[in-house]
Description:
With 185 residues, the protein is an all-alpha fold. The chain has 9 helices and no strands.
Amino acid sequence: MKKLTGLLVLLFCGGVMCADLPDSKLGKDLTQIVAEARQKAKLRGQEDEKNYSQAEITACEELYQTWPKQSGKRNENMNERRTIAQNLLKRFPKSNRAGCIQLYLAQACTGREEINLYRQVIKNYSDCYYYDGVQVGAFARYRLGVALLAGGKKSEAERWFTELKVLYPEAIDHTGKLLSDRLSK
């Protein structure tokens, strides 16, 4: 709640300038940022031990790993993907991997469904991480902004991009680059 209040104050006071600082102003090099993100991912994964037995954590990871990784058309294997995501979300709703798979599902969808799933991810799983250090909530905000921009909703997209820069200035993508750098392209 404090983050949201701070964001609103920044937005209404026009104080978003801090989000537009160059990467060097973060005071860390990218290697350090990625290492810290991966450590946060590891810690978030360990939180699953509070809700699940080791056998359940293993079963969750095994189910997660069945997600089809091949590239291709977005709707390729959609029934299989939905089934995997629904099973994981039903069996392990508080797990770190629930956020990851819900974000995967959103990325596999299009249109209104894609946008609605990104919003659900942001609402329910912003604290989750992929183990490469990508924070689910930050990446969902980025992808939601991209989807909205593609749909002609520039002002709403910009709102999500601003929130991303303010709340997650050190968020990275799957290649280990800052998400904020992707916004300037």
